[in-house]
Amino acid sequence: MLFTYSSEGLLTMLNAFYKIKFFDLPTRYNLRQSVFLKEDGSIGTSVLRMVDTASTTVCFSIRNYEKCITYSSDGPRDLEEFTQQIFAKANRLANASAPEE
């Protein structure tokens, strides 16, 4: 289903992206990083990619620029709330433009 946003609506959405610092966030939140002490006394690092964890990817793209963030349930709360608002708005727009049966 395709629908359009008004210019004002797009600016409002873009301002909301800036408000939650979307463009400053890391691209992945489904990685678990840790440090550990090796037998020789040095410190090692470990990165575990949690592929079996449900995740959401949110992307913003315009012309040649794209920023995507993948997060799971323990990701940024502000981003999750904003994502739910966007989906709710998209559902309302899609339902408003759906043909009557």
Question: Strands, helices and their partners?
Answer:
Layout: H1 7-19, E1 31-37, E2 43-49, E3 56-62, E4 65-71, H2 77-97
Antiparallel strand pairs: 1-2, 3-4
Helix count? 2
Rg of Cα set: 19 Å
Q: N- to C-terminal separation?
A: 16 Å
Q: How would you state the average pLDDT, rounded?
A: 83
Task: Tell me the major beta sheet.
Answer: 2 strands, antiparallel
Structural class: alpha+beta
Beta-strand proportion: 25-35%
For the biggest β-sheet, the strand order reads: 1-2
Mass-distribution shape: elongated
User: What is the helix content?
Assistant: 25-40%
What sequence of helices (H) and strands (E) makes up the elements?
Answer: HEEEEH
How many beta-strand elements?
4
Low-confidence stretches: none
Structural features, described:
The protein has a domain at 7-29 and 56-97. It has two helices and four strands, in the order H-E-E-E-E-H. It has helices at 7-19, 77-97, and strands at 31-37, 43-49, 56-62, 65-71. A hairpin with a 2-residue loop joins strand 3 (56-62) and strand 4 (65-71).
Features:
101 residues, elongated, two-stranded antiparallel sheet, two-stranded antiparallel ribbon, alpha+beta, 4 strands
Task: Offer a quick outline of the entry.
With 101 residues, the protein is an alpha+beta fold.
